[in-house]
# Entry
Amino acid sequence: MKIFFIVSLLIAATLANEYIEKLETAAKECGIGGVGELRALEAKGEKTTIGPTLFCMNKKIGIQDSNGIVHAEGVANHIRKTHAEKDESEQNKIIENCDKPTGDSGADKAYNLFLCVIKNLH
# Structure
């Protein structure tokens, strides 16, 4: 039983790392140096840069489609892989609070989703 648990943890960690690599690649393809740069841009209040960049990334990783529609399954997948250190109830709270962001455009929804996740992490 212990071996199964350890193997499960290793598989989960590998999948999470693969997803983080996918995020980093999407960030670079969408015009920024990496995921860490998003926080720096947000701290500077550069919504006009962050929104379109996040929308581009979200389309690449399956959170939004090209029409800007946010897919709850994509949000859930993202939260579970990027915040695996949180217990399931904390993850579910973030997902429930953030899987229906508002906004007039895909970029606005992407930005509001980003802000919601940050707010709900604390």
Observations:
- Residues 14 and 20 are 10 Å apart (CA to CA).
- The chain has six helices and no strands.
- The mean pLDDT is 86.
- The helical segments are 2-29, 36-43, 47-61, 72-82, 88-98, 106-121.
